[in-house]
Amino acid sequence: METNGDARPDNSGSVDAEDEKKRRGGCGCWIMVLIILAGGAALSAWLMGMIVTREEKPLPGEVAITDLGLRYVAVPGDFSNLRNPSIMDTAAAGRGRELFGVECAICHGPSGKGDGVYGATMYPPAIDLTSTRAQTKTDGQLYWFVAHGINLSGMPAFGKDYGGQNNEQEVWDLITYIRTLQPK
Ligand code: HEC
Questions:
Q1: What is the pLDDT of residues 6-54, one digit of tens each?
Q2: Any idea what the Cα angle at residue 169 is, between residues 167 and 170, rounded to 5°?
Q3: Does residue 75 line the site of ligand 1, with CB under 6 A?
Q4: Domain boundary among 21, 38, 54
Q5: Which atom in ligand 1 lies closest to the alpha carbon of residue 129?
Q6: How far apart are alpha carbons 15 and 9 in whole angstroms?
Q7: Are residues 95 and 49 located together in one domain of the fold?
Q8: CATH code: domain of residue 136
């Protein structure tokens, strides 16, 4: 015997639709949405507050995570593999050294150890360029950081393409010089 189909032959579809409407209207989902939005806003405000008002040094985990981001995410693929045309070129290193004294030493320190007048107290502090963290990056990655700068840090852009003052050769001169820096 046919049962349901026969009981409401023609208008079964529309009755179902109305039921559905009633159920949706009454579920209170919008309250959940509001709670989630408010929670999200509170969380971001709290995080921004921590970041903006904090004075101590970044935690080791933060440094590691930032470094992973810089190493594997921040630099566009075609930059990472760029080759330094002036590699091991002492004249280029000399030019880079002069530029470094004028443009970079104030933050990274006269010999690149991150102990410049401003660098040590910035958040994050200007990196020690003699460190493994910096020296294990590729020439192309270093090129990108110097030319393009690092967003959300004090590292400015020096490349002409990004509003800075150095042309391509000058940026490579700086990288060649950075490669000569020795840890103490
Ligand atoms: C106003 C301060 C300031 C100046 C000037 C500055 N830097 Fe930086 N630099 C920073 C900060 C801050 C960082 C980010 C450190 C971090 O990510 O932990 C940084 C990061 C870098 C990095 C990335 C290193 C890495 O492995 O993550 C390189 C390379 C670099 N700077 C080179 C230079 C060079 C070359 C100059 C000069 C042409 C220069 N910087 C000038 C503050 C500065």
A1: 555 555 555 566 666 556 556 678 888 999 999 999 998 887 777 666 6
A2: 65
A3: no
A4: 54
A5: 24
A6: 11
A7: no
A8: 1.10.760.10
Q: Is residue 116 within 8 Å of 126, Cβ to Cβ? A: yes
What would the mean pLDDT of 106-111 be, rounded to a whole number? 95
pTM: 0.76
Number of domains in the chain: 2
Distance between CA atoms of residues 33 and 72, nearest Å: 35
- For 24-57, letters b (16+ CB in 10 Å) and e give eeeeeeeeeeeeeeeeeeeeeeeeeeeeeeeeee
Q: What interhelical angle do 90-103 and 168-180 show, nearest 10? A: 100
What integer best gives the mean pLDDT of the chain?
Answer: 86
Distance between the two ends of the chain, CA-based, in angstroms? Answer: 93
3-state secondary structure of 166: strand
Domain of 162, in residue numbers? 62-180
> Do residue 6 and residue 75 come from a single domain?
no
**CA pair distance 155, 74, nearest whole angstrom:** 14
Cis status, amide bond into 124, omega within 30 of 0: yes
For residue 127, the CA-to-ligand 1 centroid distance in Å is 6
Give the Å distance between the CA of 155 and the centre of ligand 1.
5
